[in-house]
Amino acid sequence: MNISFELVASYIGPISSALAIGFFLFRIKTLDLPAKVLFCLTILSFLTDCITSVLAGYKMNNLMVMHVYTVLELFFYCFFYSLLFKSTSSKYYLLVLSLVLLAAELVDAFYISKLSRINSIASYCEALAFMVVSLLFFYSMIKNLPQKNILNYPLFWFNSGILIYFSGNLFLYLFISFVNPQDSRFLGDLWNINSFLYFSYNLFLIAGAWKSRK
Amino acid sequence: MEVSQINWVFVLVAACASMALLAIFIMTFVVHYQKRIIQHEHEKQQEKLKFQSELLRANLLVEERERSRISKNIHDEVGILLSLLKMNLTGLNRNEEIAESEKRKLHNLTDLTDKIIFSTRSIAKDLQSPLLRDFGFVMALNDLCKQINESNEMSVQLITQEMELRFDENIELQLYRICQEIINNILKHGATQLVQITLSKNSDELVLLFEYNGNGITDKEHAHLLKTGNGNGLKNIVSRLQLLKAKQTLSRDNFHFSHLIQIPLLNEKE
Q: In angstroms, how far apart are the furthest CA atoms of chain A?
C-alpha cells in the first residue's frame, strides 16, 4: 500500500508537468507573456524532474540540482509578477525581493544547509515571499476588477495555483527544518506531499492555460 | 517508527487544514469579487442613467430656448411688420380715389392679413405661452382648454381646486408640454367630443387624469408603439416624464380611456 503511494507520488509531479506543458502548447497562440513565462518555468521544472530522476537512478545526490532550480524559479516568478503589477514601484520591490531571495539561497546553499542537503531555509523564505506576493495580486484583482467573470481570467487560476503551492510548501519546509535529518522515512513522506501539491499547482496552470483567450 | 507515524498524521492533518483554509479563501475571494463586479456594474448603470437624464434635460432646455427665440422673433418682428401691413391696407381702403372693385380686393387682403396675424400670434403663443411664464402651469392649461373649446373641435373640461398652484419654471414647462402633447394626441386619434382633465395635489404627488370616451391606447399598446419606433409624441411624453421622475398609467374600460400621470413632489434638495 505504502509502496504504491510512493510510486504514485514520485510520478505524479512529472506527469502533471507534462500535462500542463501539453495544455500550454495546445493554447500557445492565445497565451500572453505572463502565461508564457509560466510555460517556460513548467518546462524547466519538468527537465529538473527528469535530471533528478536520472541522478537518483544512478544513486547520486540530486539536491544540488534543486538548489539551482530554486534560484531559477525565483527569477521566473519575480519576472511573472513584474508583468502583472503595472506600477514601477512594484517592479522595483520585486527586483529587490528577487535579490534578497537570491542572497538567502546562496547563504543557505553554502553556509547553512550545504549543497548536498535540502535547501529548506531558502525554500521557505521563497514560499513565504511568493505567498505574500500572490495575496497582493489577489488584492490588486479585487481592486481593479480586470474581468467580469473571474473564473474566465487565466491569471486568477495561475495565481491561485501559486498561492496553494507555496502555502503548502511553506508548511512542508517548516516541518523539514524541525525534523531529524536521519529520519529519511518522514522526509520522504514530506517530499511525497510536495509532489501532490505540485500536482494541484499544475492543475491550476492547466485551468489557466485553458481559459487563455486573446 | 511510532514517532514517525505520529509525525506523519500530524503533517497530513496540518496539510489538509491548510488546503481547506486556502480553498475557503479562494472561494470567498471569488464570491467577493463577483459581488464587487455586480456593485460596479450597478454604479456604472446609475452613472449612465444620470448622464442620459442630464443629456435629456440639456436637449429639452435647448429646444425650449429655441422655441422661445423663434416665438420672440415672430412676435417682435413678423408681428410688427404684419400690423404695419394691415395699417397700410386699411389706409388704402379709406382712399376715395380707388375704384369699388379694387376696394373689394383690398378688403379681402385686409381680412387675409388679419388671419395671418391671428395665425402668427397662435404660433408664437404655442411656441411659448406667456401665460405659462406669468401665471403658471394651471392657468396656462386652463387657457389651452379654452382655446380648444373655442375651436369647436372638441370640448375640454379642467377640474381642479389648485388654480394658484406654482412650481419651478422648468417643471411647469415640462408639465405644460406633456398636457399639450396628450391633448394633441386625443385630438388626432381620440375621436371624441369631450375630454375631462382632473388635476389634484396631495402631500407627496401631483395627479393629472385625462378621461374620455372614444379611441385610445393601454399601457401594453403604448409599450408596443414605443418598441416599434412609432409615436414621436409618446416618446416626447416619456422623456419629459422621466425628467420629472413621474409615472404614467394608460388604461381602458370598454370605450372609456384614462391616462393617469403621477408626479412626485420632491424636496428642494432632491
A: 53
User: For residue B70, which amino acid is it?
Assistant: I
- What does residue B166 show for φ and ψ, rounded to 5 degrees? -130, 145
Q: What is the pLDDT of residues A30-55, one digit of tens each?
A: 899 999 999 999 999 999 988 888 88
CB B163 within 8 A of CB B151: no
Name the residue type at position A126.
Answer: E
Asked if B33 and A141 come within 8 Å (Cβ–Cβ), the reply is: yes
| DSSP labels, A59-117 | T---HHHHHHHHHHHHHHHHHHHHHH--SHHHHHHHHHHHHHHHHHHHHIIIIIS-TTS
Tell the residue number behind the cell numbers 511568493, with chain if given: A130
Distance from CA of A104 to the nearest CA of B (A): 25
> Residue B11 and residue A175: Cβ atoms within 8 Å?
yes
pTM: 0.67
CA A84 to chain centre: 17
**For the domain with range B136-270, which CATH number is right: 1.10.287.130, 3.40.50.10580, 3.90.79.10, 3.30.565.10?**
3.30.565.10
Q: How far is it, in rounded angstroms, from Cα B238 to Cα B259?
A: 13
Determine contact: B35 vs chain A, CB below 8 A.
no
* Amino acid letter for position B62: V
Maximum Cα–Cα distance across chain B: 142
Q: Are B210 and B249 in contact (CB under 8 A)?
A: no
pLDDT per position as a tens digit, A76-134: 999 999 999 988 898 999 999 999 989 988 888 888 776 666 666 778 788 889 999 99
- Rounded-to-integer distance, Cα A74 and Cα A133, Å: 12
CA distance B213 to chain A (A): 52
